[in-house]
Amino acid sequence: xxxxxxxxxxxxxxxxxxVAVSCSDDFLEIAPTGLLSEAQLTSLAGLDASLIAAYSQxxxxxxxxxxxxxxxxxxxxxxxxxxxxxxxxxxxxxxxxRFETDATNGNLFENWQGLYEGVARxxxxxxxxxxxxxxxxxxxxxxxxxxxRFLRGHYYFQLKRNxxxxxxxxxxxxxxxxxxxxxNNVDIWPMIEADFQFAADNLAATQSxxxxxxxxxAKAYLGKVYLYQDKFAQAKTVFDDVIANGVTSGxxxxxxxxxxxxxxxxxFDNGKESVWAYQAAANTGSVNNANPEFDLNNPYNSAxxxxxxxxxxxxxxxxxxxxxxxxxxxxxxGSYNTPANLVKNDMGIATDEAFTIxxxxxxxxxxxxxxxxxxxxxxxxxxxxxxxxxxxxxxxxYSVKKFVYSRTEVGTYQDNSSWTPGYTGINVNIIRxxxxxxxxxxAEIETGGLEKAREYVNMIRNRAMNSNxxxxxxxxxxxxxxxxxxxxxxxxxxxxRRAVRFERKLELGMEGHRFYDLVxxxxxxxxxxxxxxxxxxxxxxALGGATYTDKHSILPIPQNQIDxxxxxxxxxxxxx
Length: 576
Description:
This protein is mainly alpha-helical and about 575 residues long. The chain has helices at about 1-20, 25-30, 40, 45-55, 70-75, 95, 105-130, 140-165, 190-200, 215-230, 230-245, 315-320, 365-370, 390-395, 435-445, 450-465, 495-505, 515-520, 525-540, 540-545, 560-565, and strands spanning about 80-85, 275-280, 310-315, 370, 375, 380, 400, 430. It has a two-stranded antiparallel sheet. A two-stranded antiparallel sheet has the order 2-8. A hairpin with a 3-residue loop joins strand 5 and strand 6. Helix 10 (about 215-230) packs antiparallel against helix 11 (about 230-245) and helix 15 (about 435-445) packs antiparallel against helix 16 (about 450-465). The radius of gyration is 26 Å and the shape is globular. The relative contact order is 0.13.
């Protein structure tokens, strides 16, 4: 009875207090803590903050596997690199590099979740614009909606390349208003095109903040979308315009950086070759503002950059691809993997054993891309070989080099606020001008412009010719670099096609493009099985016995998503 009286008394006291407090108008005017009102979100400041949130998702945030660097999905699957490190470290990548992925692999869901988070944030901006506040002008609507649609197009492009058949949700659909009934059997290319076309038509040519997209970035991305659908004439038209007239968001005319190596130095971020990059900043008080997904992709056990962990190790096939002939041209016949042309490496040779670097002719871009023994590792020291490799028998003898910070960038474009110094403030270009030039060369070949394609490729090779890596003491070139131009006219489309495709391999290696290129060209089975055979014979623990089949041209839909909505709404991709 005592307990009951206490409870009733407490209830009566509580009720009396509520009545007393409810008589105060002030109580009704206090906004709930941590809750944003509709008026705040639909104001100009609220809309811009929501748009920034959509931008912030571009690098994947907490979803490492949703980053547009695509170091796993585009480069490891493309044969540029192996997972690296050892078998037990981040072992869910092992089946991905072996093309043994199934629908329960958590990395798939991380990619899916991160990209759809980006879609949701872009849609949220567009939804809020429908009820904009009075301080939002028509010009503001145009500016904000064009950026939001660009970002949504980007997220869906990534989803389309990875999973192909994905549900399309725009700002007009939400929970309870049809989202639950969306199926993934509709081609979403037209919607992706529409978003980039809208962005191209409505964005300004320059922006006050250079990290924001402009109309030229939208046109370049639209051209890429056309290329993926084999719409070569439309792609050519767009690329012609971008190459002739395009400028960065900061207003600088597009062009190639003079030195290839400067593309991966923070000092040159947002330069004339940057069509669109995700922005990274170091030492801001949070590593969430830094480049978050390469923190483990540094030499293992080194006193140089990163200290951890040896992921993303360039493959034998990839490094051999940089071998050139006596004229400095690439070995387009595939003979780079024959005994006479193999690039010498220190596989199985301890750091304290003698080793002499290869003196055969080679493209200098190899030494801006892959760390190899006997060659300066950026400005740190000469790469010592095996002591910087966690397990050579699993990852091979090479270290990643692109996007690794230099000695001179410590404390400026490198962040020291976390457990590892591997976070950087170096931007990652999602589209750079060299990529545009080579895509334009493809479009030229398929529309009959073989000589224009040769001109484009020679632009890229001329820059490579002048991008030698020097010895640390400055006494000369670190290796026997030799790059030549294509001087004979191109009259055979098949030969021109081989040259352009190979140039993409050399120029854009380990930047997340290769696998997607092979799939869209229809050469994935031939190229990847040749790589798996060659590298697998040398890395039995990592790749031995692995084969590629065309069912792996796309990823399986994450099983947990099918379980959530049902197999009649989310239909699994064939073969999984």
